[in-house]
Structure formats: C-alpha cells, structure tokens
Amino acid sequence: MIARPLIRLLSWVLLAYLALPLIVILGASFTATSYLAFPPQGWTTQWYRHLLADPSYLSAFVTSSALAAAATAVAIALAVPSALALARYEFRGKAAISGLLMSPLVLPHVVLGAALLQFGAPLGLTRNFTALLVGHTVIVMPFVLRSILAVMTPEQRALEEASADLGASPMQTFFLVVLPQIRPGLLTGGIFAFISSFINVELSIFNTTAQLNTIPVKLFNYVQYTIDPTIAAVSGATIVAAFLAIVILDLTVGLDMLSEPR
C-alpha cells in the first residue's frame, strides 16, 4: 500500500528534476540584465525581439527544421525495407550488414563529419544542404531501424502469410497489415531521428557556411564570443516549439499508439 505512493512521489521528483533546466532557461530568457541570470533580474522580452529581428536565427531555425524533417523521411524510407529484410529473412552476411547499419550509433559524429568532408569533396558533397542531408541520414537511420525491429515479432509473419493466402498483393499486405503493425516503431524512431538531427553539432559543423547554418552550430559559434540572454531566448523558443509539436502530434496522430499497435 505504501510502495505505490512512494513510487508515484519518486516519479514526480524525477520529472521535476528533468524539467528544472528547462525552467531555468525560460526564466533566464526574460531577465533584464545583459548577462544570463536566474532568477531573472527584472522582466523583459527584448531578447526575444532581438531574436526575431535577426534573420540569421530564423534562417538557421528553418534550415535545422527542414534538414531534420528531410533526414527523418529518408531514414524511414531506407529503414523500413532494411528492417523487413533483417527480421523476415535469413541470408549470408546478415549479422555483418546489421552491424554496419547500426555502426553510426557507436562512431563519433566528429569522425563521420570529417570523413564526409574529406571523401565527399570529389562528389561535390561538401558545405551544402545535400552534404548535410547525407550525413544526418547516416546518423539517424539506426534510431528508426532499431525502433522498427523492436516491434516486428514472429507472430506478425503469420498475419502476412494469411493476407497473401486471402489474395492480397504484396503492396496491399504491406499497407494493410505490415504498416499498421510497425507504426508505433515508425513514430518512435521518427521522433528520435528528428531530435537527433535537429540538435546535432559535431557532424553539421563540418559542412555549414555563413549562409547555410543550423541552430545548434550557430549557437555553438555564438557562445565562443558572447554570452547573453539571446542564447536563452533561442533555447526558450525551441522548447516552446517542441512542446507545441508534441501537442499537435498527440491531437492529430495520438501518442498512445507509441505504446501499442492499432
């Protein structure tokens, strides 16, 4: 009887601990001082006005969002057939291919960024959006692949065989049987992929320019010379945008499907 209230209390304490940095960032973004301060000394929105008045921040935010969305879409397109092949078939070299596809999880992103910069030069894959897209797809695909593999069970194979026995074509079986079963993994992997791409600094810094910049790289370069509440304002705007995205996702798709297939 006592254990359940204690577990609930501990859960709320952990959630509050995790939310504390977000509260500090949001509070510091409204301080009237020219330096980061929490609790905020005074109350002003000038740092948000400064953020909106600087087109480079808006451009970087758009670039980061577009890059993360594109990398997630490409990663899903590549991960779905890869997961089906790894989960449904036995073939020579399966373990090696699986290890290769998962290797970006253990390789430092700095190494991947430097390699892309060096070996992509002859192909023109340097310091442009395509180069960033290739690199980000490589680092986020394992998240999608692992999430899909986690929801692919042997029991689903029987449903696919039953669909084929009833006369459904392979495409019909995929869209009507396979896709609904792996949808929780797709959503989970897509969310992780988008976040991982959006916050990446190590790989992105090798292929960004003054005209093509992402929010994490811009902030990384900014804090080397100046530390003022503009940084907190950018972070606060990102937190609010992420919160709104989660609310919209829950209202349109339903986050409850992440826990069980429909």
UniProtKB/TrEMBL annotation:
It is found in: Cell inner membrane; Cell membrane. It comes from the Bacteria. One of its GO terms (biological process) is transmembrane transport. GO terms for cellular component: plasma membrane. InterPro entries: MetI-like, MetI-like_sf. Keywords: Cell inner membrane, Cell membrane, Membrane, Transmembrane, Transmembrane helix, Transport. It comes from Bordetella flabilis. This is Polyamine ABC transporter permease. Belongs to the binding-protein-dependent transport system permease family. The chain crosses the membrane at residues 12-38, 58-87, 99-119, 131-152, 231-253. Its main location: membrane. The keyword tRNA processing does not apply. Pfam families: BPD_transp_1. The keyword Membrane applies. Residues 61-252 form the ABC transmembrane type-1 domain. It is a multi-pass membrane protein.
